[in-house]
Amino acid sequence: MNYRHGFHAGNHADVLKHVIVLMLLEALKAKPSPFFVLDTHAGRGRYLLGGEQSQRTGEAATGILRLAAHKGLPAPLKAYLQAVKAGNPVDALLAYPGSPMLVAQALREGDRLAACELQAEEAQALKALFTGDAKVAVHARDGYGAIKALLPPRVGQDRFARGLVLIDPPYEAQQDEYPLVRDAVAECLQRWPGAMVAVWYPIKQRRTLQPFYRRVASLPAKGVLAAELLVHPDDSPLRLNGSGMLLFNPPWQLDQALAPVLKALDAALGEPGASHLLTWLRPPV
Ligand code: SAM
């Protein structure tokens, strides 16, 4: 396991993923009953943008730092920027929050987060970040196995009818990850049918993803929405040209809320030949 998210924190893919995660959390917060979030591949939770890993790739410069300089953004992007800035001094973006941090910031009194991270050092850093936070449980374990162990969610006497599973693996062994992801989503939907499931995936060349799209479209969800941002044309298999989020059981009218967000991200972060796509792989029922 060589992957370290510190090299990529705050890049265009993180921006897309985290904006959408916050939109899903907002939809959950529209109802008073508590919800549960399982983050299967959580990372270390907070990344220093001036740190060695981040500086080596410079990826945040064309992601969060570029977006933060934009004015007139749609409301969900403004809310995302506010959430990112929450852990920073007033005038500087020194640290970038990972998914468990963004989720934890959004939790209300009864809501809970379980965050899994397999890499020992990353898991240790994540545990340190949430020491003393009773709403967050950090598990140094395989996130796929956690789906079986933790779903449907129960915390003490509490059961959670609503919530979100975020599946955000590193896709290190490229082709091997897709069947794992598909099976993981199937397991989530079977164990916790009311949950939303969000899956991040990298895009080098879109056409190579067609079999994956077909396989996930057949899963028993009330709608499967794909939201993609390609900051480069998808004509090179060698670089990360963009990424997408698959959304199973997405909230009502999320597609309408997402359309202007993707358009604004394309305009703010896209290089020549950039594009975005919002499509139902399985229409809502
Ligand atoms: N979700 C994080 C965020 O948005 O801030 C980023 C996660 S990063 C893309 C993927 C993480 O998964 C890495 O920290 C890696 O160490 C971890 N990882 C890899 N395989 C794993 C597994 N089977 N279970 C849990 N974590 C895993």
From TrEMBL:
Residues reported to bind S-adenosyl-L-methionine: 18, 41, 99, 117, 142-143, 168
Domain of life the protein comes from: Bacteria
Phylogenetic lineage: Bacteria, Pseudomonadati, Pseudomonadota, Gammaproteobacteria, Lysobacterales
Protein name per the record: Ribosomal RNA large subunit methyltransferase J
Catalysed reactions listed for this entry: adenosine(2030) in 23S rRNA + S-adenosyl-L-methionine = N(6)-methyladenosine(2030) in 23S rRNA + S-adenosyl-L-homocysteine + H(+)
Gene responsible for this protein: rlmJ
Gene3D superfamilies documented for this protein: Vaccinia Virus protein VP39
Residues forming the catalytic site: 168 (proton acceptor)
Site for Interaction with substrate rRNA, residues: 3
Family recorded in the similarity comment: Belongs to the RlmJ family.
